[in-house]
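UPF0344 protein ACFSW4_11085
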Amino acid sequence: MGDVLFYNTHLHITTWVIGIILFFVVLNFVKKSNEKAAKITQMVLRLFYIFILVTGALLWFNNYMGTGGGTFTESVVKSVAGIWLIGAMEMVIGFTKKGKSTFAGWLQFALAIILVLALGFGRLPLGILP
Ligand code: HEM
């Protein structure tokens, strides 16, 4: 079980770090109106959303399903905030493409990433294993 958890948190961390970097790469291509590069990198980013979701869901099912109490609640809030962060990244990219104000998207990005990092590293027990 220890081995499974080890690979699991590292996979999750790897996927969301790459995802967040890709988000900024896509945003940069969109801003520079490099439509072809933006389209291709956004496809890769969306593939990484799936990797993030799957590795996060695996962590959740392996460690929290059927448990209860405060840590369980925090794990649910952490997971929902992770999904929210993905939504916020899509919003920022979408608003940028349409030339709209990105404020609402960035505000959500900021709130969601604070929640996710505070709960993921500050509160929940797995952290970076071992
Ligand atoms: C971009 C989105 C996300 C980011 C930045 C993020 C970030 C993190 C961080 C920093 C941790 C703590 C380190 C670790 O144990 O791996 C973590 C753990 C975790 N994440 Fe995510 N995550 C994201 C998406 C998700 C999603 C979508 C889910 C659920 C479907 C999820 C579920 C979990 C769970 C269950 C843990 C284990 C918490 C623990 O016990 O330590 N995450 N995530």
